[in-house]
Amino acid sequence: MMNDRYQNMFSHLAQNIEGAFIPFVMLGDPTIKESETIIDTLIANGADALELGIPFSDPVADGPVIQRADYRALVAGVTPELCLDLIMRLRAKYPDIPIGLLVYANLIVYRGLKEFYEHAARVGVDSVLIADVPLSESASFIAAANNAAIAPVLIVPPNADDDLLRDVARLSQGYVYCLGRAGVTGADRMMEMTQTTKLTTLRELNAAPTVIGFGISTPEHVRMALNAGARGAIAGSAIVALIERHHKNPDALHTALASFTRQMKAATRLSTI
Fold first, then answer.
1. What's the Cα-to-Cα distance from 182 to each of 121, 190, 192, 197, rounded to whole Å?
2. Annotated catalytic sites, by residue?
3. pLDDT for 186-221, tens place per residue?
4. Per-residue pLDDT tens over the stretch 17-70
5. Quick one: DSSP state of residue 251?
6. CA 217/CA 241 separation, integer angstroms
7. How close are the terminal C-alpha atoms of the chain, in Å?
8. Which of 31, 131, 209, 256 is most buried by its number of CB atoms within 10 A?
9. How far is the CA of 185 from the CAs of 3, 24, 65, 171, 241, in angstroms?
10. How far apart are CA 177 and CA 171, in angstroms?
């Protein structure tokens, strides 16, 4: 049976007139141990859920900031098994926080779909989003996710047509990931808020709550996403850039992450917008 952490989170936030702030972290950057303390800092300062990456050697959907995070983690010897062990520790500490994975298909295929999703479920993963599998090739992954009671999260690109929106509304669980702009990940390019009509259509189709990612790097971007009708915003490259800048000075790193998270979470409080 699918767990209801996402549903509980979105319901609780709606009661408080808030959207969700969801940070992305590449597990193992710069080390597995430091990843855990980074995530502790993010949650302590207002993160509502987590989107976590497993380092991969060919992250084609990512820009240079996250590509370098993959490299740092791989050089540190981080493996998918170490990442899943860390998630198990996080789940024990944070039983109610939704935890999603954003991964590449080869990481799943190498392990075997059934084994990967079942292992992810055992350690407490709530959802899996696959960066490089289009909807037309996703059936086997969605089936394996559903069999393991993991929510398959699907992507809505800026050029999505009505047929794609209907399919995503039918199949995506937990939340729907709407791209704030085309291209690869990166905080150096402004978010292009062109998704308002698509968000309205997804609501009319009774889709899972929509969350906007790609290009979210400032509190203003969070407000734009929520004002467009999204239920939350995901920031990835902006956080990974802070880790890259300060990872050799842990005190400075955690101060910067705490400040950034508090500002981004404050922007989700719709009653103050």
1. 31, 11, 8, 16
2. 51, 62
3. 444 444 545 688 999 999 999 999 999 988 999 999
4. 999 999 999 999 999 999 999 999 999 999 999 999 999 998 888 889 999 999
5. H
6. 10
7. 37
8. 209
9. 29, 11, 8, 24, 12
10. 12
Give the C-alpha separation, 269 to 57, whole Å.
Answer: 38
Q: How far apart are CA 164 and CA 157, in angstroms?
A: 9
Distances in Å between the Cα of 166 and the Cα atoms of 22, 143, 149, 161 are 25, 18, 22, 9
DSSP string, 61-117: TS-HHHHHHHHHHHHTT--HHHHHHHHHHHHHH-TTS-EEEEE-HHHHHHH-HHHHH
Q: Provide the CA 101 distance to its chain's centre, in angstroms.
A: 7
Nearest-angstrom CA–CA distance, 20 and 264: 10
Q: For residues 215 and 186, is the Cβ–Cβ distance under 8 A?
A: yes
Pairing assessment for the beta strands 151-153 and 176-179 based on DSSP bridges = unpaired
For residue 157, say if its preceding peptide bond is cis, omega within 30 degrees of 0: no
Which of 263, 255, 208 minimizes the C-alpha distance to 235? 263
Asked if residue 230 lies in contact with residue 19, where contact means CB atoms within 8 angstroms, the answer is yes
What is the separation of C-alpha 228 from the centre of its chain, rounded to a whole number of angstroms?
19
124-154 residue pLDDT tens: 999 999 999 999 999 999 999 999 999 999 9
In order, the DSSP letters of 132-186 are: T--GGG-HHHHHHHHHTT-EEE-EE-TT--HHHHHHHHHH--S-EEEESSSSS--
